[in-house]
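G., the chain you wanted modeled:
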Amino acid sequence: MGRTKAKKKAKSKAVDPPPQDSPQKGPSISSLLEKAQSLVIQCDYELARRFILRILETEPSNTEAQELLGVVELERGDVDAAKKIFTAMISATENSTAPPPPSAHLCLAQLCEDEPRLALQHYQAAIDTLMGQLKGKDKATGEDLDNEAQIKSNIVRALIGQVEIWMDPSYDLCFEDDAEKNCENLLATALQTDPGNSEALQSLASVRMSQQRPEEAKDCLEKAWSAWKDLDLGMSCYDSRVPPIATRISLAKLFLELELYAPALLVLHGVMSSDDQEVEAWYLEGWCYFLMAEQARETGGKLEDMAWEELAKDARDRLEACQLLHLNEGHPDMPLLDHVRTLISQLEALGIQPSAPLDEEDDDGEGEWEDLDSEDDDGDKISLLFSSSFCSHTSLGNIFSFLSSALRMAKLRRDTHESQLFSSTERPLRIVASGTLFLTHTLSLPCQPAPSSVIRAHSVEKNRGGSASTLLSLLAQFPNVEAALVAPLGGNDEGNMVIRDLETEGVSTRFCKIWPGSGVPSAWVFHAADNDTRTIVNHNPLPDITHEEFVSILGPLLAPENYMLFPPAESPVPATYPPSSPLPPSISSQSSPRTPGTPIMFNPNSPAPFDWLHFEGRSVKTTLSNITGLDGLARERKWRSHCVFSVDIGRRGRQGVEALIPHADVLFVNKHYAQANSPHYAATPRTFLLSFMSTAPPHALLVAHWGSEGAAVLSLPTREYFQSSGWVEDRSTTRTPSDSRRPPPQGRDTAANSTANSSEAHDMRSVRSGSDFWADGRSRTPSSSAFTAGNYTSSDARSHLGLGTPQTRSRSRPRGHVNRYDTTQTEEDDNEDADHDSQGTEVPESDDNVVDEVGAQDAFVAGMIYSLSRRILPGPPYTPASGGEDVRPANMDHDKGRWRLDECLRFATELAGRKARRRNWDGLADEMARAGWFNNAY
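Predicted structure as tokens:
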């Protein structure tokens, strides 16, 4: 981010300064193209499109940019726009001696789904061009050998594309007399071009099967599979010898058709070791077990010493996992889902029930999901969760294979015609937060009441407080978030109303301890206008949850196998009750209901019962027992590296709170805590976080919220430090000429977005990661967040604080409206050692713009939790198992789609800034979405 900009500044000092009237030199075309390619790999298509358009403004005939723009349009689902681009690329070379790029013909061949003969012509034109390129490589050596292999691979795939058209029963071509002969000739050419090519052999096997020659088909498949079956399929992203996932899935289908179930399962297991969220792989594996169970029933009840009931149970488990993944990811292939549900219904009719979640009774206590993740002994295998179309390619050079995958997904998206602002493939976040909940009643008075006096209040406001419940309510506004609260709650009418509100907002209360007939902890604040003083009266009728109660409440989540004999607990409040206060549809629509029969917070891709566990840091003794007990259980059951423990120790200075620090993966602190505990280091967040290093575990991530002054994050294992200024409202309504060129943000609700005017939409815009330096040439917003980053060693950090200050800026413009509810919170108890109080209710000084600084801190914590869960956490190096060592591979392709730390900090800072300038919490997630944070797939 900022490093690139800093280098350009440093370079300019070495030459004479340019005249003031000369324009500032922008980045080179090659730099812009490289950045655009990296954004495509990260699935950031909207921003990549802006880079490409800027390149084409300078060089309209740049072939690489045109080609990449077509790729982006396909990934965005605009097939017609992609077709126009590739057609224009071919038309531009009609009067030139240079042939058109083969990728344009390859793409158009796949886009001509209703014109098979035209598709054959495009394939042949691409083959002719590629053959010409191959002839020029006869004497190639060294680096050119890789390019030659790539050309051969593309030729083979184009020939296979022609074979598939001739064999497709939906076209009349397959009924022509020479169809079979044409297929034989095309495949002979493919194997002559690239002998032993696994994809050509697979295609030949398919032809042999259509010719009723199964033995020859088996021989072809065995040859195709033997070329790569012994490779490390878990590292397929880094080994070009491993075929793409789509090719391996096709091989599994052929094995299934030939009733070769064992090799089909091995191929599918390799696919899931590369991408354990591949829906079709789960489907095929379930179908394979289903077919095996059917065969076992017909042959005496067993197949290779496995009972048909056992095989059917395996089929049910895989199909249930496939169904859950399909729904969670919003996968567009609905016929697949329909077949999965049909198979599940048939198994249900046979009396086959799914296995208990995380059942650890088999395999000496090792659960089924542990077996799937047992590639590494320490259980710390990094999941490759990005798009399978890139998972099998190390570069954009293999344009044909990538475009095939892109086109397939574009067609599926077009069939479902869904336009959502939030990505449908967002990684789920299952979070449990332990803390408190209370109500604050604020009475605005002309003066403090005298004893035995009667006084009239100007206004009375009632608000709900408590850090854990507040941040969960905010997180529940985001997609694919399951939020559960652990807290004591009152069971009287007022308490039931609070519970209904939480459930309506998407926060589960099934892990709360309900005290029937008891009230809600409350604080009454008398705010006198004459001297601006506050008198606070607290009442807390509920005791805190003890360690024993904590373990008992979370029992069904932590050890579900011990609770399978009991019926599931009902929600404490019927779901049909209306909320006490209306919520926007955007909030209630984010969380989707769990499928009936699905275990609590179930995620088939993680052995952990949750992804994140957050503690408010209240009663230190109880919290310490809770966190150490869970840590021991997680290590024993080998899912500690698959979840995050975080503690907010900055709410108030509590005696002994430092005992919690060694057990947390993420530590949240604030300026007030720093001033109270380390006043000598509290001048800046950097000095305080560096002083904090000696007490924090080596794998920890330290996060500091500094109020209106900004925030900072320090990563101990990666030696990274980032700092942001406060998110400042830009009240300017004048748009610069270049601003007017920017397209309006794409909303997830078209109708809602159409009601907003263009200036309002522009005011909502913010772009992640400071990429405007590349996409627009420079930054213009004076109110954007500034970041500093630098690398250091632990010894250097303690001796000096000069971490380097390369900076970058980005646009960040708020909507600027004021909401109607005040969330000002109050301190319930001044005794720092008291454990039975409602904390986190300080009332700081505020200015004309900031109306809720304490709420902003809760929003900041929620923003960091959500953004860090975008494939940074859970996982190494921020786990105790890694010992603070960054165990990620040197090849950083596994980071595709992962948010960076500076992006996480920017997201949380902006979310906190927006909350600070509004009085309620409704629609904050949608506001961030309209600002542009979720325009891209992650």
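The chain is about 45% helix and 10% strand.

Shout if anything looks off.
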